[in-house]
């Protein structure tokens, strides 16, 4: 004999739109507070190693060369590279954090089903995840700015603006990738293809390590669709005080458009997958 | 007929005997080829992920060779004569992709099969031993790595970066490098407890990729750092490849080969013993 099931009205109230998103962010934060050590390698050490290898090592190789001076506009290679690396690490963190963890929430630990069984909507889950990635990039990026400063890569206080730009760039990658991951059923091929054919070429061909005009003419238009290229252009302009207001506005508009479109699509796909 | 086949059969038998000397009894049935067939069948459905591995070093070569090259100009090659930056990094990327492919295959993939897929437990229910599994997995990683290396060498040839007939030996050399990393990677995987431990793999592989003279010569480092780099396996792989593709071949390169022979021997023996302990006890 089992106890009779009594159905009562829930005592809780449905959270408002913003509150629902914040609850998802809080969920991520609680997880992160316990497991942050696991992410130190990818979010801090990895960009640090790239800074050492290219900024310091490669920088020493090209220092004083005419080719390098022409490419960087006269500043040291490390100073020129640092704001771009900030944007790269934001993009890589964003791509990773919105791929496997999102599939995991749907498929392995199914935490999204648990969240939406409560009064949080699928759209709020999607927005909360994107907001969390942006927050995380802000945190790790701040640490990274400190590291850059130690190695002498900071030219002006504009690096703080570059950090904000990196967060914006990361969000512009996180939103569409979250949407993509919501449509992925099987981890086998989709994410390898995403990383190898989108993230890695984006990292290499977006003007991080050398100006885009050093590439053959037919490759250059690829940079125009790359959020990382737009982010790098503004981050570098901010860090080196080389503002071109009209161009900067265009880059910011492109990144914002990616965030809005990506987030809307992600919210839609989350709803479709969680409330079929 | 028999006269032709006998020596081959005898050497196969003696290699089986050698493996039996090194590994625990009853763990090797001489059937590791069954694993190769399984892997080939399993990867037919993930062909795009399979093929994509080839593109990664090609993207690096295109971007870095052109873009970074425009800042560097020419560099001193292994024998001191100047070479273009593309010719400098291409062999480095070949070595690095042999390492990355082998390490990825022998760590992430093997760990997943070991802990989650439980594929090896199923295999051990057949007449296969842990050593068959170790050799079969390493063999598959080698076939894959060999195809990638061949493709990359073809791309290098297309760009005119293979200037010496010694470059023909770059493929077997890449296979030896991949074998060494796969064997050690598999041995390391057998000690891993959770996915968190894979950060350690990144921690070993990424610095090697960045600092083992792949992108710039050893001369930019202070002397003490040069000695550290010279101890790393990828450094020896890069030196080997750079010597072969530019034709600057000398007897000292046998030292690099010896380094990888030791890695292979240690890796295979440790991996076999550990798999035996993990799966059969």
Characterization of this structure:
The complex is a heterodimer of chains A (276) and B (281). By secondary structure, chain A is mostly helical. Chain A is 76% helix and 0% strand. Chain A has twelve helices and no strands. In chain A, helix 2 (37-62) packs antiparallel against helix 4. Chain A is elongated. The radius of gyration of chain B is 20 Å and the shape is elongated. In chain B, strands 1-2 form a two-stranded antiparallel sheet. By secondary structure, chain B is an all-alpha fold. In chain B, helix 6 runs antiparallel to helix 7 (170-189). The termini of chain B are far apart. Residues 1-6 of chain B have low confidence and may be disordered. Chain B contains eleven helices and two strands, in the order αααββαααααααα. Chain B has helices at residues 2-22, 33-42, 47-72, 85-117, 119-124, 130-158, 170-189, 198-211, 223-231, 233-246, 253-280; strands spanning 74-76, 82-84. Chains A and B meet through helix 2, helix 3 and helix 9 of A and helix 3 and helix 8 of B.
List keywords for this structure.
heterodimer, A: 276 residues, mainly alpha, 12 helices, 0% strand, elongated, B: 281 residues, disordered N terminus
In percent, how much strand structure appears in the residues of chain B? under 5%
What is the β-strand count of chain B?
Answer: 2
Structural class determined from secondary elements of chain B: mainly alpha
Main beta sheet strand tally, sense and closure of chain B: 2 strands, antiparallel
Task: Return the string of H and E elements of chain B.
Answer: HHHEEHHHHHHHH
**N- and C-termini, Cα separation of chain A:** 35 Å
Total strand segments of chain A: 0
Write down the overall mean pLDDT of chain A: 90
Low-confidence stretches of chain B: 1-6
Shape verdict of chain B:
elongated
- CA distance, first residue to last residue of chain B: 44 Å
């Amino acid at each position: 004999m089992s106890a009779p099931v009594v159905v009562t009205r829930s005592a809780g109230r449905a959270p408002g739109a913003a509150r629902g998103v914040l609850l998802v962010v809080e969920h991520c934060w609680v997880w992160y507070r316990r497991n942050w050590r696991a992410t130190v390698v990818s979010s801090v050490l990895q960009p640090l190693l790239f800074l050492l290898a290219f900024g310091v090592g490669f920088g020493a190789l090209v220092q004083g060369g005419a080719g390098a001076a022409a490419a960087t506009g006269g500043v040291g290679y490390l100073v020129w590279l640092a704001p771009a690396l900030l944007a790269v690490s934001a993009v890589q963190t964003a791509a990773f954090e919105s791929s496997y963890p999102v599939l995991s929430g749907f498929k392995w630990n199914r935490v999204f089903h648990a969240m939406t069984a409560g009064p949080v909507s699928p759209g709020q889950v999607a927005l909360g995840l994107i907001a969390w990635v942006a927050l995380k990039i802000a945190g790790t990026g701040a640490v990274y700015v400190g590291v850059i400063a130690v190695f002498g890569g900071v030219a002006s206080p504009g690096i703080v603006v570059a950090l904000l730009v990196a967060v914006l760039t990361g969000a512009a990658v996180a939103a569409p990738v979250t949407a993509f991951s919501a449509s992925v059923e099987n981890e086998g091929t989709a994410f390898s293809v995403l990383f190898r054919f989108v993230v890695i070429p984006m990292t290499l061909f977006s003007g991080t390590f050398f100006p885009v005009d050093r590439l053959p003419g037919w490759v250059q238009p690829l940079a125009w669709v790359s959020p990382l290229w737009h982010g790098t252009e503004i981050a570098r302009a901010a860090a080196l005080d080389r503002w071109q207001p009209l161009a900067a506005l265009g880059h910011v508009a492109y990144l914002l458009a990616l965030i809005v479109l990506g987030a809307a699509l992600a919210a839609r796909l989350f709803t479709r997958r969680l409330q079929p | 007929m028999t006269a032709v086949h006998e020596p081959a059969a005898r050497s196969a038998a003696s290699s089986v005997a050698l493996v039996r000397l090194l590994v625990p009894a009853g763990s090797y049935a001489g059937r590791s080829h069954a694993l190769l067939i399984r892997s080939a069948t399993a990867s037919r459905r993930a062909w795009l992920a399979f093929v994509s591995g080839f593109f990664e070093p090609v993207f690096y070569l295109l971007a870095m060779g052109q873009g970074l090259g425009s800042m560097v100009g020419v560099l001193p090659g292994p024998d001191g004569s100047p070479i273009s930056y593309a010719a400098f990094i291409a062999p480095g990327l070949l070595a690095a992709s042999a390492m990355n492919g082998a390490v990825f295959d022998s760590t992430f993939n093997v760990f997943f099969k070991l802990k989650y897929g439980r594929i090896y437990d199923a295999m051990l229910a057949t007449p296969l031993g842990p050593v068959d599994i170790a050799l079969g997995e390493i063999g598959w990683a080698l076939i894959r790595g060999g195809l990638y290396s061949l493709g990359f060498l073809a791309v290098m040839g297309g760009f005119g970066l293979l200037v010496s007939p010694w470059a023909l030996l770059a493929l077997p050399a890449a296979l030896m490098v991949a074998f060494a990393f796969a064997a050690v990677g598999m041995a390391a995987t057998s000690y891993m407890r959770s996915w968190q431990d894979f950060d350690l793999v990144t921690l070993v592989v990424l610095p090697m990729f960045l600092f083992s003279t792949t992108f710039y010569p050893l001369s930019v480092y202070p002397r003490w750092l040069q000695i550290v780099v010279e101890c790393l396996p990828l450094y020896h792989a890069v030196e080997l490849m750079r010597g072969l593709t530019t034709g600057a071949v000398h007897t000292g390169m046998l030292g690099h080969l010896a380094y990888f022979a030791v890695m292979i021997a240690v890796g295979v023996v440790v991996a076999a013993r550990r798999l035996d302990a993990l799966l059969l006890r």
